[in-house]
Automatic annotation (TrEMBL):
One Pfam family matching this protein: HTH_24
Superkingdom to which the source organism belongs: Bacteria
Name listed for the protein in its UniProt record: DNA-binding transcriptional activator DecR
Keywords linked to the UniProt accession: DNA-binding, Transcription, Transcription regulation
Keyword Transit peptide: no
PROSITE patterns for this protein: HTH_ASNC_2
Domain called HTH asnC-type: residue spans: 11-72
Keyword Chloroplast tagged: no
Species whose genome carries this gene: Rhodoferax lithotrophicus
GO molecular function: DNA binding
């Protein structure tokens, strides 16, 4: 069964299978993908191009082990601004785009205005170079942080079974 994603794009079971395979290993060749999902390499190529053009496949990356490359501290930071919206929010978002330690910055509703995921080499680096820099951003009212002790689940794979 096909499910419309938007007016211009309709998923079918081959698209879902292709995306699932690519989420698991984006280095697979079109030949390997075709064998896995029962399509020819040329059909896989056309589908991949279509998924890229639609913005569904944004990019392909290598997922690194942060701890093995010396970034063993991970923190979840909750940031509240003095005022909601306005110039403070835009300024904060521009600053976050320039922080290489910030893996994710999400605007949220609730107690905080933003939730950040941050990596650092050490607790000292987290405190000195990240938290101190955050507190100096104009418009920041409060920061709460949680240090990740152990990652129980960490995935980049989206639940594609819901797409059909």
């Amino acid at each position: 069964m096909k499910k419309p994603i938007n007016e211009d794009f309709v998923f079918d079971k081959f698209d879902v299978a292709l995306l699932d395979a690519l989420q698991k290993d984006a280095t697979l060749t079109h030949q390997q993908l075709g064998e896995a999902i029962h399509l020819s390499p040329s059909q896989v190529s056309r589908r991949v191009a279509r998924l890229q053009a639609a913005g569904i496949i944004r990019r392909s990356v290598a997922l690194l082990d942060a701890a093995r490359i010396g970034l063993g501290v991970r923190a979840i930071i909750y940031v509240s601004l003095v005022r909601h919206g306005g110039e403070e929010g835009l300024a904060f978002e521009r600053e976050m785009a320039a922080f290489p330690e910030v893996l994710a910055c999400d605007a949220v509703a609730g107690e905080s205005d933003y939730i950040l995921q941050i990596v650092a080499a050490s607790l000292s680096d987290l405190s000195d170079s990240v938290l101190r820099r955050l507190t100096r951003i104009q418009g920041v009212n409060s920061i709460r942080s949680n240090i990740v002790l152990q990652s129980i689940k960490s995935s980049t794979e989206l639940p594609l079974t819901q797409c059909l």
